[in-house]
Structure formats: C-alpha cells, structure tokens
Amino acid sequence: MNPALLLVISGPSGVGKGTICRELQKLDPTIYLSVSVTTRPPREGEKEGKDYYFVSEDRFRELMEQGELLEWARVYDYFYGTPRTAVNKARAAGRDVLLEIDVQGGLKVRENCPDSILLFVLPPSLEDLSIRLKRRGTESSDSIDSRLRWAESELPYYKQYDYVVVNDTVAEAVAKVSAIRIAEKCRPQNQKLVWPIT
Ligand code: 5GP
C-alpha cells in the first residue's frame, strides 16, 4: 500500500473550497474529507457530523487540552479544529485525507506533519469573491464584509503554500487539484514498490 497523502486546501471564504473538495470525493470516494469541530452555530441545512461537529466552547477547550486536535484556529468569532484520530485512522487505512481549513491551520499542519501538501485556492479576483459570497446567501451583509476583509488579509499567504489553484471554473480547479494529487503520488517517497530495487 502506498502512503496516503495529507492534502490541505485553504483559501478565502466563498472561494469554492467546499465544492472542489466534494467534487474530488465524488470522483474518488476513497478520499477522506475531514469533518472539523467548531463552536460556530450551524447554518440552515448544515448537518452534525457531516458538515461539522458543533460543540460548545468548553467542549472545544477540552478537546484542545486532551490533544485531540491536529490543529485549531480562531476564525472570525469562532474556533475551528481538525480531529486528530479520524485523520490518522483514515491515513493508516491508505485513504488520502483532505483538510479544508484556514491558513493559520494550514501552516500549523505543515509544522506538525511535514509530509502534508498545502494547496491555496485563489478567486479570479476580489470582485468575483464578493459576488460568490453574496450569491451563496448564507451570510448577513456585515458578515460578508468581515469575510472580505479577512480574505484580503489571508490572500498574501498563498506564497507559503506548495500549490496555487485559481478557481476560474469548478471543473478546471478540480482537474488541477486531481493533477497535483496524482503528481504527489508519483514522488519517490510516496512509492512502496512491490519488488526490491538496489
Ligand atoms: P465556515 O464558517 O464558513 O464554515 O468556515 C470559516 C473558515 O474556517 C473557512 O476558511 C474554513 O476553511 C475554516 N475552517 C473550517 N474548519 C477548520 C478547521 O478545522 N481548522 C481551521 N484552522 N480552519 C477551519
């Protein structure tokens, strides 16, 4: 069994990370999409255990203190974190893992797991991002403004990532991420050859 990859997908809110991750998983259901823990209240239609595990701040702190989170960050007014055990289990079973997390989290994952691969999804333009956030219709106008401000501060981090994917269309972005995944699997350190080569 070849080693499983740990792929981190970051980028501003509304850029389409979620859609890209879901499309990738549709193409290859063996991909494990990590479900984060958050103190944010659920949005309409969001499901416990599918979109997030929704927890209180006390419970979040407990998980942090018990070392149950591979990384965590405060984003906007809430805490978000990646459950460590589920990620480890999936990788041990040979499944590539996708983490859809913010840049603070992405850089922490790189520290904790140096073999992780960091992908940054950029919008074609800031105007495009604003249109996408409004079209999504999940945020109030205050929240859209704060997400756009946050996006502007987050964008420069793309230089610290391994790959940049501009999300012109979902199909192209998914094709680019799939190509990156395939190329990463072809690295010598990600090969477990079945015959010995001296
Ligand atoms: P939203 O509230 O829109 O679902 O997510 C807000 C931001 O939090 C997004 O940028 C998302 O990628 C990020 N996020 C979601 N889960 C995690 C996580 O487990 N850790 C970190 N660091 N960020 C996360």
Short synopsis of the structure:
By secondary structure, the protein is of the alpha/beta class.
What does the model show?
The protein is α/β, with parallel strands linked by helices. It has a single domain, classed as Rossmann fold. Helix content is 40%, strand content 19%. The chain has a five-stranded parallel beta sheet, with helices on both faces. It has a four-stranded mixed beta sheet with strand order 4-3-6-5. Helix 1 (17-27) packs across helix 7 and helix 5 packs antiparallel against helix 6. The two termini are 20 Å apart.
Helix count?
7
Name of the level-1 CATH class: Alpha Beta
Could you state the oligomeric state of the chains shown? single chain
The percent of residues in helical segments reads: 40-55%
- Portion of residues in beta strands equals 15-25%
For the CA atoms, what is the radius of gyration? 17 Å
Low-confidence stretches: none
Would you spell out the secondary-structure blueprint of this structure?
Elements: E1 6-10, H1 17-27, E2 32-33, E3 37-38, E4 53-54, H2 57-65, E5 69-75, E6 78-83, H3 84-92, E7 97-100, H4 103-112, E8 117-122, H5 126-136, H6 141-154, E9 163-166, H7 170-185
Parallel strand pairs: 1-7, 1-8, 2-7, 3-4, 8-9
Antiparallel strand pairs: 3-6, 5-6
Helix pairs in contact: 1-7, 5-6
Guanosine-5'-monophosphate (5GP) is lined by residues 13, 36, 40, 71, 73, 75, 80-82, 100-102, 104-105.
